[in-house]
Design brief:
The chain has about 170 residues and is mostly helical. It contains seven helices and no strands. Helix 5 runs antiparallel to helix 6. The chain is globular.
């Protein structure tokens, strides 16, 4: 009886994960974007400038479970949250910067502890971009902004990857 149950579970898991249809992909992308936007707006006061701690960055971990949907959903979420940025339109470019940065997480997602290297590479790319933009807009030294943003990004990316890795393990995905 248990063998039969396991085969049913495997069939369901295959349909859900391996052979997702377009509706499920769109829904997962929308859920990722909505989570990022909700967290971004809830924690808006601490989400911008040099000493930012953008709690919404935890969503990068979604790329561990659903690489494509997590990447696209986060890029959409970043766009909508950055519409509220004090920096204006220049901060919308970060949507483009997020694509190669998130790909670092996607690339290492199935590689045990290297998935955290993907998170660190993500944090470095995002921190470089933010430091340059802050330097252009407000003039602080690039290295100072880079360090400030990097600390928060590494913490949040690591926690996000751990969180979604636990979800992946618990749901046997």
């Amino acid at each position: 009886m248990e063998i039969e149950h396991n085969s049913k579970t495997e069939g369901f898991k295959g349909k859900l994960i391996g052979e997702r249809n377009i509706s499920i992909k769109v829904a997962l992308t929308a859920i990722t974007a909505a989570l990022y936007i909700a967290l971004g707006y809830i924690f808006l006061p601490i989400s911008f400038l040099g000493l930012q701690f953008r709690v919404a960055e935890l969503i990068v971990g979604m790329c561990i479970i659903f690489p494509f949907e997590g990447l696209i959903g986060k890029v959409i979420g970043v766009f909508f949250v950055n519409l509220t940025s004090l920096l204006g339109p220049i901060d919308l470019i970060s949507c483009i910067v997020n694509i190669p940065a998130l790909y670092c997480i996607v690339f290492f997602r199935d590689k045990k502890f290297l998935k955290y290297l993907g998170g660190v590479l993500y944090a470095i790319i995002i921190s470089i971009y933010v430091a340059i933009v802050l330097n252009i807009a407000f003039g602080p030294p690039i290295w100072l902004s880079f360090i400030q943003v990097l600390i928060a990004e590494v913490i949040l990316a690591t926690i996000g990857i751990m969180l979604f890795d636990i979800i992946k393990i618990r749901l046997n995905l």
